[in-house]
Amino acid sequence: MIVIIDYNVGNLKSVVGAFKRIGLEAVVSRDEKVIKEAKGIVLPGVGTFPTAMKNLEKYHLVDILTERKEAGIPILGICLGMQILFEKGYEVKETKGLGFIPGSVRYMDIDEKIPHMGWNQLHITNHQPILKYVHENDDAYFVHSYMAHCKDENLVAYTDYGTTKVTALVQNKNVIGCQFHPEKSGMVGHKILLAFKEMVEC
C-alpha cells in the first residue's frame, strides 16, 4: 500500500487513478497511523510553496514524513510536491522546505514563456531504477513557473526549455522528485510509476 498525502494541495483523483492503472493500491490520507503503515509515500502538489509547507505543518505531517524518510520508505514528490522536498523555496517569500534534497527552488526568470507548460524531452544524467523503463528523449508533461536548483549528484534527468536546463527529476537515496506530472505523461509516466511500484514492493 502507498499513501498519497492529503494536505489540500493537489489533484488527488488523477494521481490515485494513475496508480490504480498500474495495479498499486493507493490510499489518500493525512492520518499518522495510516502513513506509518505505508510501503511508499507520494506527495502531490498544485499551488504555492508557502501554502504547501503551511499545510504540512497545520496537519502535523512534517515529523512523520521525516521519520518515514529516515526509515528508508520510498517517497515520491510530484511537481510542487517535488519542490517542497528541497531545503528552501522562494515563491512569494523565502520558505523553509522539508530539506530531504539539498538545494532550492526559484522563479524561472528566463526569456521563454512562463509558466513552462507542455511536453518536453527528458535527458538522463544519472541512471537510477526510477527510470529503468524510460529512454533518452522520452517526453513528459510539465506545468510550472519555478524550478529546482540542485547538486549534480542529485540530478537524475533534466529538460531543455529554450536555452535553460530545467531540473526534471531528482533523487536523494529513497527520496525522488518529478517536476513533471507522471500521472499526465502517458506511457512515460506510466513507466515511471511502475518503477516506483517495484521500489515499494521490493
Automatic annotation (TrEMBL):
Major localisation: cytoplasm
Gene Ontology molecular-function annotations: glutaminase activity; imidazoleglycerol-phosphate synthase activity; lyase activity
GO BP annotation list: L-histidine biosynthetic process
UniProt xrefs under InterPro entries: Class_I_gatase-like, GATASE, Imidazole-glycPsynth_HisH
Domain annotation Glutamine amidotransferase: ranges: 3-189
CDD domains named among the record's database cross-references: GATase1_IGP_Synthase
Active site per database record: 79 (nucleophile), 181, 183
Cellular component GO terms, alphabetical: cytoplasm
Keyword set, alphabetical order: Amino-acid biosynthesis, Cytoplasm, Glutamine amidotransferase, Histidine biosynthesis, Hydrolase, Lyase
Record bears the keyword Hydrolase: yes
Catalytic activity: 5-[(5-phospho-1-deoxy-D-ribulos-1-ylimino)methylamino]-1-(5-phospho-beta-D-ribosyl)imidazole-4-carboxamide + L-glutamine = D-erythro-1-(imidazol-4-yl)glycerol 3-phosphate + 5-amino-1-(5-phospho-beta-D-ribosyl)imidazole-4-carboxamide + L-glutamate + H(+); L-glutamine + H2O = L-glutamate + NH4(+)
Signal peptide segment: none
Subcellular location field: Cytoplasm
Keyword Disulfide bond: no
Recorded metabolic or biological pathway in which this protein acts: Amino-acid biosynthesis; L-histidine biosynthesis; L-histidine from 5-phospho-alpha-D-ribose 1-diphosphate: step 5/9
EC number(s) given by UniProt: 4.3.2.10, 3.5.1.2
Function of the protein: IGPS catalyzes the conversion of PRFAR and glutamine to IGP, AICAR and glutamate. The HisH subunit catalyzes the hydrolysis of glutamine to glutamate and ammonia as part of the synthesis of IGP and AICAR. The resulting ammonia molecule is channeled to the active site of HisF.
Assembly notes: Heterodimer of HisH and HisF.
Protein name: Imidazole glycerol phosphate synthase subunit HisH
